[in-house]
Amino acid sequence: MLEGLAAALPGLLDGQLIGLIFLGVAVGMLGGALPGISPSITIALLLPIAFSLDPLTSLVALGGVYMAAEYGGSISAILINTPGTAAAVCTALDGHPMARQGRAQEALHAAILASSVGGLIGVLVLIGFTPPLAELSLKFKSPEMFWLAIAGLAIVCNLTAANFVKGVMSALIGMFIATIGYELETCYPRFAFDIPEIEAGISLVPCIIGFFAIPQMLMLAGAKDQTVAEVLPTPGSFKKVSLFMWQRPVLVLRSAVIGTFIGILPGAGASIASFVSYSEAKRFSKEPEKFGTGIPDGVIASECANNAMVGGSLIPLLAFGIPGSASAAVLFGALTLHGLSPGGRLFTEHANVVYGFMVGFIPVVAAMLIVGGLAAPVFAAVLRVRTAYIVPTVMMLALIGTYSFQNSVVDIFIAAGTGVLGFFMMKFGFSLPSVVLGIILAPMAEEGFRRSLLLGTIDGSVWLVFFSSPICIILILIVIAMVVSAFVSEAKGRKRLSQSASGH
To answer: How far does CA 405 lie from the centroid of its chain?
Structure first.
């Protein structure tokens, strides 16, 4: 390992590579911030260019795009409550209220600092623990993946503890949307209502845009304010947020560990990492009722986790050829384009490339911190723009992003339909993040459930297969703990309301 690291270092000192890192970071931030242009799409668009570069330069530059895009989703989430990526949904919960309070620059600095710290921790784990942690990911088979999805859905209980019933109903709506399309075993279209265009299912991108961008723009269009929010002068916000994070090492470390661990699990992705981290931050907080009102803790937990996930997602990719996320899958394509095959031979025959790729994330994190930190005041200035200009611009970009995802007009109609639905759900107090979480986790839960039943039938245990490993038991206990915690939080909330009402 040390020999590989030593062989990789000279290649990272190349001036062209450093320039491409900064360029990749800037492109990644832009791609992540634009609704519909996900990190995986951004990387995929750059693959033809990357192919013309040498393997190390290509992989490090694409790694910069990947890392920065995961942060970039927070920019639009904070400023206009329109997450550029699914992982930034939780960031919007506290980031946008901070922006509405005139603290947009503080929220953006919290996001970039947390993303940088989380990304660095994830990279250090990637470098130091790839072999043993990759073995752990292989222990998550169908029953474990099913319970992981259920644990993710149970997070709804904690995210919406103030109104448990509406939170669960929101998640069920998302799960129903996810069931539209071909049935897993028979490939028979279900809930398509004889509409050929949706027989293959409804993609996540138009749903994210529909449930977040369009309702928010409709709300802004009907608001009396001429701007999104007042931007208050926040001198020293970078220093303030740095000190804030320094005083909360447990929050930062826990979020980074969660993000890294979930990144290791194939198919889990940044969205699950941010949801789990946000939920745990709220559960362990001394003031859980303040989450969702505009506190830096929520932004830090979400962003720290989704960028730590980057390092984690590359562990099973490099060790076993199993991508931990969609973006990691695109990077797998970049590896194969250069004739590199993941696995043990990659670390022996191409040590300078693979170790250079991993170590190259350290200057990527530094570049991201520099660009994001310096650009925060510029990003915050967006809030001063009149809503009369913001609403049509964002709507146009959102619909263009929706169409470009699959070059499908149907996706535009899906975004519009879910946008109208999301607008009314927002009006009546339902949880839009819970809907998105249901859409994300339902396929994982269904696939894990069906495959587990098949395994159980073969083994003659059927239902016992769901309790067949210590990991399953741990995940079941987590689900129970989250549900109980939600009921307790709801009961405490009602008690506080009744006490305040009696006091008046």
So the answer is: 18
Domain ranges of the chain: 2-503
Given the structure tokens 């309790």, which residue do they identify?
467
122 Cβ contact list (under 8 Å, min separation 6): 256, 259, 260, 263, 307, 308, 309, 310, 311, 312
Of 247, 269, 267, 248, the C-alpha closest to 258 is: 269
Q: Which residues contact 29 (CB under 8 A, 6 or more apart)?
A: 68, 69, 71, 72, 75, 368, 371, 372, 375
C-alpha to C-alpha distance for 79 and 95, rounded to whole angstroms? 8
Strand partners, 227: 386
What values do phi and psi take at 425, rounded to 5?
-65, -40
pTM confidence score: 0.67
Profile the chain (504 residues) by mean pLDDT over runs of 10 residues: 54 74 87 69 72 81 88 83 78 86 85 91 84 60 82 65 72 88 78 78 78 76 57 69 88 91 72 84 84 87 90 78 68 76 70 81 89 77 66 78 78 88 86 77 84 81 82 87 75 67 59
Mark out the alpha helices in 1-141 (DSSP H runs).
2-12, 15-33, 39-51, 55-80, 89-100, 104-137
* Best CA proximity match to 278, nearest among 253, 257, 303: 303
504 vs 498: CA distance, rounded Å = 10
In whole angstroms, what is the distance from residue 56 CA to residue 154 CA? 41
Rounded CA gap, 473 and 479, in Å? 10
